[in-house]
Amino acid sequence: MSKQQLVSSFNQLESNINLLCQLLQTQQNVKAAVFSLPETLKGDENNEVSSILVDKHTGSDALTRAIDLFTLLFIHKKSELVSNKAAIRLPGAICLAPSLADYKRFQHLLFEINQLKIEIKQIVTHIDEAHRFEFIRESLHGLLTLNTYRTLTSVVDPDTIRFGWANKKVINKVTQEEMLNRLQASLESGRTPSHLQREHWILQLKNEIQLIRSLPHDCVLKTQRPVKVQPIARVWDKETQKQTQYPCATPLLIFAIDKELSDIKLGELADYHQDNIALRNRPKAKPVELLIPRLNLYIER
Question: I want to staple 54 with a disulfide (CB 3.0 to 4.6 A). Which of 35, 76, 121, 227 is the partner?
């Protein structure tokens, strides 16, 4: 994959996003509500979050905030005080009653945008992890990859959209060979974390490589990366008696085609308080032991 492919796909993406936002701004029949969350400042990325206070925005203010997020693709477009490592989230929904011609344009643009987002992510992730940062920096300096990869969700004629919070972990099995390759690539890349001296970093990597090599060949390794609390949307369709849950880091685009806008009910996103989240039917996990904290790497025991 070449830098030219990445830049070309990104330019197409940016153009289509701009066309989508222009089309959104021309709509006359709009009902919108979004919920802004506190910004994560630099240095606060790893702080434990026990509560999140939300602010509700409606109407044209909600639409403007949604457009601002859809078009936020570079670091230099946001405050220097805000962390570049933390995802920017704006849960909510933009409900539209477009003409048939505009609805077809929306569907075409959303399909193209999401395909390009997937394509860009594939181009970047096919680059070896040790060289990925340099590849992005040389191709599209300051790119916000999380915002760029994040696809847009659209729903037609739901009955209700309610919002809530979810806690989860991202768990992946990895082999010894994969971990050794990853650590060796870090050792050979020449890059050192800013908070460490190079000799300490090299020693740490060599110790981690030795630790992985010393494990039994049949061991089960897992990365368990904790993901901070996420806003979600629960969309209910009365006709099919079906509820669908969506991640809601960006506002859903809701189209009223056979329904009136007034038929679609938008719920509220309550403030998050850790003590109020109930754990439901969580499967019993096998016991694990933490091996390398910085990689969230565990071994089953």
Answer: 35
Rounded Cα distance between 70 and 15, Å, is: 12
User: How far apart (Å, rounded) are the C-alpha atoms in residues 233 and 285?
Assistant: 27
pLDDT digits (tens, 9 = 90+) for 66-78: 999 999 999 888 8
3-state DSSP call for residue 150?
coil
Q: Name the residue ranges covered by the structural domains of the chain.
A: 1-164+233-272, 169-221
What pLDDT sits at residue 127? Answer: 87
| Distance, CA of 27 to CA of 59 (rounded, Å) | 12
Largest CA distance in the chain: 65
Of 44 and 148, more confident = 148
State the amino acid at position 3 in one-letter form. K
Q: pLDDT of 267-285, one tens digit each?
A: 999 999 877 655 444 455 6
Pick the CATH number of 1-164+233-272 from 3.50.14.10, 3.40.50.1450, 3.90.550.10, 2.60.40.10: 3.50.14.10
The b/e string for 28-51 (b: 16+ C-beta within 10 A; e otherwise) is eebbbbbbbbeebeeeeeeeeeee
For residue 107, give both structure tokens: 């569907």
> Collapsing DSSP states into helix, strand and coil, what is residue 168?
strand
Is the Cα dihedral 196, 201, 207, 209 positive or negative?
positive
Task: Write the CB contacts of 71 (distance below 8 Å, at least 6 apart in sequence).
Answer: 17, 18, 21, 77
What percent of the chain is predicted at pLDDT more than 90?
65
